[in-house]
TrEMBL record:
Organism: Micromonospora sonchi
Top-rank lineage group of the source organism: Bacteria
UniProt keyword Ribosomal protein present: no
InterPro entries cross-referenced by the UniProt entry: AAA+_ATPase (IPR003593), ABC_transporter-like_ATP-bd (IPR003439), ABC_transporter-like_CS (IPR017871), ABCF (IPR050611), P-loop_NTPase (IPR027417)
Name of the featured protein: ABC transporter ATP-binding protein
Coiled-coil regions, chain positions: none
Single annotated GO MF: ATP hydrolysis activity
Keywords from the named record: ATP-binding, Nucleotide-binding, Repeat
Keyword Nucleotide-binding included in the entry's annotation: yes
Length: 590
C-alpha cells in the first residue's frame, strides 16, 4: 500500500473525466458451430443495477464475459470505455499456475496495483526532478492520484481483509497455493477482490453461491453502497428483489430487458402470458368459425337438388341446378382462411404449473389400512453409523399436507435423511414404516447425466403416456421447445435435465414430494410457478434449501415444520409449539 504525498497544494486540479460508455450493439457470439448470443443490444448506464436471469446454458455467463472483455464478439459492435475500471467475479475463476492466495489477489486487483505503482513512481520522480520537469510530473501525479482516489485505493488492503473475514476466509494463509482451495473458496476469493476494487462496473456471476446467511447479508449491503454500475447473474430472488432496477432475460440467444425491478419483471411476464393467451384463443375461435363455415356451406350445397322442375313441358322441362348459389364462393374463402390460419398459428402459452392430484386416501383404503392420522411415513430410533453416512433420528411422522423445512450445515446429512425417508437407504437400526403403495417424487440435488433415450421417450416411459400425448403434455408445460423433444437426455444441459425432473414431478401422481435444493439450475420465474403450484399440493413436501425466498414463503404455511440436521447426522425435531430446537443447542441456521 502507498501513501498520498504530503504537499497536495503543489498538485494541479484533476482534468475532467472522460465520457463513460458500456454498450453492445447487434452483438453475436458463436463458439464453433453453436450460436450462444445473437443480435444482442445492451447499454449499461453509470449507476444502473441490472440482473441477468435465464435458464442454465442460455448465455448469461457469456454475456458477462463479453462485458468484461474476455470473450470477443463474433459480429456486432462493442464499446467499453470505463476509466474507473471493470471488476469481474466468475463462478469458477482460474489463476496462473503456481500462484499463491496473495498472488491471486494481486492478479485480481492488477489495475489498482498498477495505479498504486504508477503513483509511487511518479511521486519519487517529482521528488528528484528539477524545476523545468516538475510541472509536467506534478500534472501526471495529479492524474494518477485522482484515479487512485476514485477507486479508494488507499483503503484497498483494509477492504480486502474485511471482505475475506466476512466471507469466511479470514484465517486463510496468503502463502497457500491457490489451487489447493475448494471451488467455493476460489469463488469467494474472486468475489472479495471484485467488491474491494471499487470498480466503476461490477460484473458478478452467481455471487450468493456458497455463502451463508451472514455472508449474503454483507454482500447485499456492499452492493447497495456501490457507487458505480452493477451487472449480476443470479437465481437468488431475494437479491433480485433488493438490488435490481432492471432485469435482462436471456432466452434463445436473445436479450429482453424489463424495468421496475424484479416485481416489475414478474408483472410484465404475466402480462405477456395473458396477451399470448388472448391471441391464441382468438386464433382458435377464428379457426373453428372458418371450419364451421366450410361444413355448413357444404351441407347446404349438398341439400340443393341437381335439377329443378320448370313450369312448362317439353325438352326444357328441367334445368340444371346452379352449383354455386353463393355456397361455393363461401366454401372457397373459408378454406383459404383455414389454410392461412394453419400456416401462421398463434403460439399456445404454457399452462401454469399444477401438480397432478394425489390419491393418498384411496391408496390407503385399497391397502386395507385403517389409520386415523393418515400417516405416510413413520421413523423411530433410526440409526446409520457404520461404513457410510451417519444419521440419528429418534422419531418422525409425515402426513398428507405436511411441509417440512430441513436445514443444517453442508455435509451434516440432510440428503441422507431424504434418502432414508424415501426408502432408498435402509437404516441399520430402528424402524422405518412407509405406507404400502406410497408414491414419492424427487427433485434431487445431484442431477444424473441421463440416458441415451430421447427426452420425449423418457417422459412417455416415466408417465405411461403415448408419445403423442406425452409430447402435448411437455409442450403445454412450457418447459421445453419442440426441437428439444427428440434430443437424448444425456445431451441436455443440467438446467434442462432439472426441468425434466420438474415435468415428471408435476405430472406423475405422488403422495410425498422430496425437494433437495430445488432452486438449483432453475430460472426465478419457474421457481415462482413451482411455489404457486405447491399451495394446492395435498401430499407432504419435504424441502432442503438455502433459498431465502423459498424458506420464507414455505415457513409461512400453517402446516410448516422445521427440522434441523446437526453435524454427524443428529436430527432435531420441532417442539410442541412448532419451533425448532437444534439437538446440539446450536443456532438453527444453514
Amino acid at each position: 500500500m502507498i501513501h498520498s504525498p504530503s504537499s497536495l497544494s503543489q498538485i494541479q486540479a484533476a482534468a475532467p473525466r472522460p465520457h463513460r460508455v458500456c454498450a453492445i450493439r447487434g452483438g453475436t457470439v458463436r463458439f464453433a458451430e453453436r450460436v450462444v448470443l445473437t443480435e444482442i443490444d445492451l447499454v449499461v448506464g453509470p449507476a444502473e443495477r441490472i440482473a441477468v436471469i435465464g435458464d442454465n446454458g442460455a448465455g448469461k455467463s457469456t454475456l458477462l464475459r463479453v462485458l468484461a472483455g474476455t470473450v470477443q464478439l463474433t459480429a456486432g459492435e462493442q464499446a467499453i470505455e470505463l476509466p474507473g475500471g471493470v471488476a469481474f467475479a466468475e463462478q469458477q475463476p482460474r489463476f496462473r499456475p503456481g500462484a499463491t492466495v496473495a498472488d491471486a489477489l494481486d492478479d485480481l486487483l492488477a489495475d489498482i496495483r498498477e495505479l498504486e505503482a504508477e503513483t509511487q513512481r511518479t511521486a519519487e520522480q517529482v521528488a528528484l526532478a528539477g524545476v523545468d520537469e516538475r510541472g509536467e510530473l506534478l500534472a501526471r501525479l495529479s492524474t494518477a492520484i485522482d484515479r487512485l482516489e476514485a477507486r479508494d485505493g488507499y483503503e484497498l488492503d483494509q477492504r480486502v481483509d474485511a471482505g475475506l473475514d466476512r466471507l469466511g476466509l479470514g484465517g486463510l494463509d496468503r502463502s497457500r497455493p491457490v489451487h489447493t482451495l475448494s471451488g467455493g473458496e476460489r469463488a469467494r476469493l474472486a468475489l472479495t477482490a471484485a467488491l474491494a476494487s471499487e470498480a466503476e462496473l461490477l460484473l458478478l456471476d452467481e455471487p450468493t453461491n456458497d455463502l451463508d446467511d451472514a455472508g449474503i447479508a454483507w454482500l447485499e449491503d456492499r452492493l447497495a453502497a456501490h457507487r458505480g454500475a452493477l451487472v449480476v447473474v443470479t437465481h437468488d430472488r431475494a437479491l433480485l428483489d433488493r438490488i435490481a432496477t432492471d432485469i435482462v432475460h436471456v432466452e434463445g440467444g436473445s436479450l429482453r430487458r424489463y424495468g421496475d425491478g424484479y416485481a416489475g419483471y414478474l408483472t410484465a411476464r404475466e402480462g405477456e402470458r395473458r396477451r399470448l393467451l388472448e391471441a391464441y384463443e382468438a386464433w382458435r375461435q377464428d379457426l373453428a368459425r372458418q371450419q364451421a363455415l366450410v361444413t355448413a356451406n357444404a351441407f347446404r350445397l349438398n341439400a340443393i337438388p341437381r335439377k329443378l322442375e320448370r313450369a312448362s313441358f317439353g325438352h326444357g322441362a328441367f334445368r340444371a341446378r346452379g352449383r354455386d348459389h353463393g355456397a361455393m364462393g363461401r366454401i372457397r374463402m373459408a378454406k383459404e382462411r383455414v389454410a392461412r390460419l394453419h400456416a401462421d398459428p398463434a403460439p399456445r402459452p404454457a399452462d401454469p404449473l399444477r401438480f397432478t392430484p394425489v390419491f393418498t386416501e384411496p391408496a390407503a383404503a385399497s391397502a386395507g389400512i385403517a389409520n386415523e392420522k393418515a400417516v405416510l411415513i413413520r421413523a423411530e430410533g433410526v440409526r446409520l453409523d457404520v461404513d457410510g453416512p451417519r444419521l440419528r433420528l429418534d422419531a418422525l411422522e409425515v402426513s398428507p399436507g405436511d411441509r417440512l423445512l430441513i436445514s443444517g450445515p453442508n455435509g451434516a446429512g440432510k440428503t441422507t435423511l431424504l434418502n432414508v425417508l424415501a426408502g432408498e437407504l435402509a437404516p441399520q437400526r430402528g424402524t422405518l414404516w412407509r405406507r404400502p403403495g406410497i408414491r414419492v417424487a424427487w427433485l434431487r440435488q445431484d442431477i444424473t447425466t441421463g440416458s441415451r433415450a430421447t427426452l420425449l421417450d423418457a417422459f412417455a416411459a416415466a408417465t405411461g403416456a403415448y408419445r403423442d400425448d406425452a409430447a402435448d403434455e411437455l409442450l403445454r408445460l412450457g418447459l421445453f421447445r419442440p426441437d428439444d423433444l427428440h434430443r437424448q437426455v444425456a445431451q441436455l444441459s443440467v438446467g434442462q435435465r432439472r426441468r425434466l425432473e420438474v415435468a415428471l414431478a408435476v405430472t406423475c401422481p405422488s403422495d410425498v414430494l422430496l425437494l433437495d435444493e430445488p432452486t438449483n439450475h432453475l430460472a426465478p420465474e419457474l421457481l415462482e410457478q413451482m411455489e404457486d403450484a405447491l399451495r394446492d399440493y395435498t401430499g407432504a413436501v419435504l424441502t432442503v434449501t438455502h433459498d431465502r425466498r423459498w424458506r420464507e414463503r414455505a415457513g409461512a404455511s400453517a402446516t410448516a415444520r422445521q427440522v434441523y440436521v446437526a453435524p454427524g447426522g443428529l436430527v432435531g425435531l420441532p417442539d410442541s409449539a412448532g419451533k425448532q430446537a437444534p439437538p446440539d443447542g446450536s443456532a438453527g441456521t444453514q
